[in-house]
Structure to design on (770 residues):
């Protein structure tokens, strides 16, 4: 019995073990088959699901490229900033949260509470907050308060070249100006980065999970020079205010390659806060507005006639004592003139003279010449919204229209169009396309775009005509010309005034009190550049309507600033009279006299300087008690090397006073501060 | 009999070493995995710091550009130091 029981119990234990083993095996098989199902059969589905949960694709907006001036100064840059938003329905204690936030943000707790109490699901609390403020808010750990990183455009020079640079919208898209025109280069390509998240949704690893490579926006390098732009803006602002004009514009261009060195207009505009200005102030009127050029256009009538050979510079025409009938209209001159040469017609800006020249030329030839000079078609400047101007077909001109066009009425031009055509007078008759962007560099500094000025130039008229016109324009700034105020002492200058009546669309006739006063002229450029063309236009000036009275002085001041900045040497010399010294013998101030005033060459050549030196005494003067400045002023170009020791006034000198100076003589000066 | 006892001990020792190795490799794997995760977090932090440093650098450059504004410098020059632009003939070029 006992044995039977023992046997039975052993069997029972075996059964238990077997059944347990069976259960375990079944369980293991079940688990394995489930694992197989999940890992192998449904692999793709669950893999995709896990990626969806653990990975996050972050779209990183590319950094917008910078805009630099020609010397590498930053004109527009982008920075990342944080903006704070709230989800009002998620905020538990709104009053308490508003109090806490008000301690950090520049808003009162009441203002913040109003936003927190909003019924909207999303509300901006503050855009572009400072990093320190964002950090403090984050430390509050407020539920329902979140942050969004945004890119913001900054223009560090504020109003400088505002209309030219333009601005960008909230999504960093260029909306106006260079920002708009070169948007395709500036904005770059989006970057998508895949990040792995942990269970707390924190970023686990930004490793090589993968990314769609974007590119940073390119750097746009302008032809503009920040210092020139500043000088031009300052002088333009001064001219507009002093003439009580409505607005004004000024542009500086290199006549050889068409590079725009400055383009400004008043009232100025700050692109950092563009919404605070009227859209009319955003306009870059030098490109997008058409004006009637007035007398500045007369030189084209003369140039067309000279080119055609119907007149010569010496041809004399009767200017009818200021009154002349063309068709049913009587043309007037501001002053009565009798017989005038072509040069005098330009110099005195005679409407009647120009009208007669145009009549000799004929409508068709005049029209064709104007077309060759680029009028009636856009210049192709790299700026959005350029107008093509207005030049009606010659077949639709009446006699009076020919006469009007000859002195700049009934024709519409943009300031850059006028400048492009004027530049041809100074570069031998070539039309060069004005341009604003020199090059675009990618993020590695490689050129992706470069402007080639000389490949796009075409001949408008002969070099002979350009020389003849330049000679006439030089006379305009003479004492008896229309713009003596445009002169810059010591420098060669040439140009033309313009005074044009504005068309009044309400009265459908030319206004009797609203005028455009302008001056367009040339100044010598630095050695590495050609001449510079400066255009100044004042809209509705009140102190005087004449270009020669209000625009020419502004031109002169701009020219002076530019010439000093660009280190252009004067064509006349300020010279210390040899051996002169103050009677007291202190030598504190030198007596100077100005010589060579009428030299017309912009930069004296080395040969001329040598001659000048030879013509003066070749004996070393006594410079004791004088400054090195006096020495330099005396010699212009030193005959040999110069060695200076110390600072202050000259105490010792070599060669000694009275010794002979020859080319190559080295000079030594020992200076000492005055007590 | 002695042989059997010796073989049994060796077998047990072998198993123990194997088990120890397995446990050690599990720990090593877990430690390596932990380190990977930790380094991942550290990397994220460092990259954030790098980004912030880059942004700060850019902000400083912007500040320099703002401080170098011609208008600002001119005002300081005029008001603080009584400077003015040189007149014609006051500037002499050294060549």
């Amino acid at each position: 019995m006992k044995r039977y029981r023992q046997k039975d119990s052993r069997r029972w234990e075996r059964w238990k073990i077997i059944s347990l083993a069976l259960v375990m095996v079944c369980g293991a098989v079940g688990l394995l088959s489930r694992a197989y199902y999940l890992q192998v059969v449904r692999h793709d589905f669950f893999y995709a699901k896990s990626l969806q949960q653990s990975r996050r694709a972050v779209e990183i907006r590319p950094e917008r490229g910078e805009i630099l001036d020609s010397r590498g100064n930053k004109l527009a840059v982008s920075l990342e900033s944080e903006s704070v938003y709230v989800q009002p329905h998620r905020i538990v204690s709104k009053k308490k949260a508003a109090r806490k936030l008000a301690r950090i943000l520049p808003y009162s707790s009441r203002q913040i509470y109003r936003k927190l109490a909003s019924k909207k699901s999303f509300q901006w609390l503050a855009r572009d907050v400072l990093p320190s403020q964002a950090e403090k808010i984050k430390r509050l750990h407020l539920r329902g308060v979140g942050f969004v990183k945004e890119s913001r455009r900054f223009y560090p020079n504020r109003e400088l070249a505002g209309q030219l640079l333009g601005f960008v919208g909230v999504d960093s898209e260029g909306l106006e100006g260079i920002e708009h025109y070169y948007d395709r280069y500036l904005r770059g390509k989006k970057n998508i980065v895949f990040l792995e998240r942990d269970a707390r949704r924190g970023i686990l690893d930004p490793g090589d999970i993968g990314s769609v490579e974007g590119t940073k926006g390119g750097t746009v390098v302008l032809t503009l020079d920040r210092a020139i732009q500043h000088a031009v803006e300052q002088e333009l602002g001064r001219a507009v205010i002093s003439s009580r004009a409505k607005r004004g514009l000024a542009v500086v261009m290199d006549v050889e390659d068409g590079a725009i060195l400055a383009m400004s207009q008043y009232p100025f505009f700050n692109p950092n806060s563009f919404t605070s200005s009227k859209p009319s102030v955003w306009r870059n009127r030098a490109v997008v507005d058409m004006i009637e050029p007035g007398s500045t256009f007369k030189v084209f009538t003369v140039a067309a006639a000279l080119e055609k050979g119907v007149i010569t510079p010496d041809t004399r025409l009767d200017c009818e004592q200021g009154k002349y009938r063309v068709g049913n209209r009587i043309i007037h001159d501001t002053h009565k003139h009798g017989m005038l040469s072509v040069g005098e017609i330009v110099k005195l800006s005679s409407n009647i003279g120009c009208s007669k020249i145009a009549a000799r030329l004929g409508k068709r030839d005049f029209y064709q010449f104007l077309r060759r000079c680029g009028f009636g078609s856009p210049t192709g400047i790299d700026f959005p919204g350029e107008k093509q101007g207005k030049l009606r077909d010659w077949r639709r001109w009446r006699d009076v229209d020919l006469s009007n066009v000859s002195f700049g009425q009934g024709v519409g031009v943009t300031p850059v169009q006028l400048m492009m055509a004027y530049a041809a007078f100074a570069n031998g008759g070539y039309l060069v396309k004005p341009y604003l962007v020199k090059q675009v560099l990618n993020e590695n500094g490689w050129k992706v775009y470069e402007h080639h000025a000389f490949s796009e130039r075409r001949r408008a008229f002969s070099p002979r005509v350009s020389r003849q016109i330049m000679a006439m324009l030089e006379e305009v700034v003479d004492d008896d010309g229309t713009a003596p105020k445009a002169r810059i002492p010591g420098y060669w200058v040439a140009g033309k005034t313009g005074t044009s009546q504005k068309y009044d669309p309400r009265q459908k006739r030319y206004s009797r009190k609203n005028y455009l006063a302008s001056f367009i002229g040339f100044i010598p450029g630095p050695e590495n550049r050609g001449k510079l063309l400066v255009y100044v236009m004042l809209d509705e000036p009140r102190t005087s309507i004449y270009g020669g009275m209000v625009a020419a002085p502004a031109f002169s001041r701009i020219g002076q600033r530019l010439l000093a900045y660009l280190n252009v040497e004067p064509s006349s010399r300020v010279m210390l009279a040899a051996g002169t010294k103050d009677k007291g013998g202190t030598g504190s101030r030198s007596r100077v006299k100005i010589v060579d005033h009428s030299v017309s060459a912009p930069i004296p050549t080395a040969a001329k300087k040598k001659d000048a030196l030879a013509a003066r005494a070749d004996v070393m003067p006594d410079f004791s008690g004088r400054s090195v400045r006096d020495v330099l002023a005396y010699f212009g170009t030193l005959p040999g090397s110069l060695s200076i020791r110390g600072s202050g006034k000259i105490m010792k000198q070599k060669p000694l006073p009275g010794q002979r100076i020859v080319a190559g003589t080295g000079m030594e000066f020992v200076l000492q501060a005055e007590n | 009999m002695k042989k059997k006892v010796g073989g049994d001990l060796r077998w047990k020792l072998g198993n123990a070493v194997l088990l120890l190795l397995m446990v050690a490799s599990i720990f090593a794997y877990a430690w390596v995995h932990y380190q990977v995760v930790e380094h991942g977090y550290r990397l994220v932090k460092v990259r954030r710091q790098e980004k912030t440093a880059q942004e700060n650098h850019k902000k400083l450059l912007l500040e320099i550009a703002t401080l170098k504004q011609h208008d600002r410098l001119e005002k300081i020059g005029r008001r603080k130091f009584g400077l003015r632009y040189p007149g014609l003939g006051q500037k002499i070029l050294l060549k």
